[in-house]
Amino acid sequence: MKGANQSPYWSVAPRQETMNTTIEIRESVYAKLLAKSLPRPIHSAAEHARLTKMLLRLDERDERDDLSLGEQALAEVLTLLIEDYEEKYHPLPRVSPTESLNALMEERGLKHKDIWPVLGNKGAATEVLSGRRSISKAQAKRLAEFFRVPIDFFI
Fold it and tell me: Crossing angle, helix 69-89 and helix 45-64, to 10 degrees?
């Protein structure tokens, strides 16, 4: 009989040298999840739809109760496969740094007066927002920190 703390999905393996507890996925359970889902590189819209549906089911379950470690690993694999397919076959259009800034400001309800301290001064903010001036690397760094987004949005 299994102990009260044992799950069929993972086992606890103590590490003597660090005295920490490492959680490991039970390979047999994970293998069954993989055999059932058959994840593989996506090359068609039908396969994309199948794996996306599977991932959405896992996400819905995760909102209700915690997924096992094997299910979490499967969700991560599915996410990587779906992202790879979407980047190859449905890439997002490149947006200019100024367009990114304007979209983020609109999304968050910010005005010129809210952003000029980040850009340095009112004149710089006006020129950047109108597209007459490029965003400098220093401004891009400050904007990325301010909006909590990757600096790539502004370069």
Answer: 140
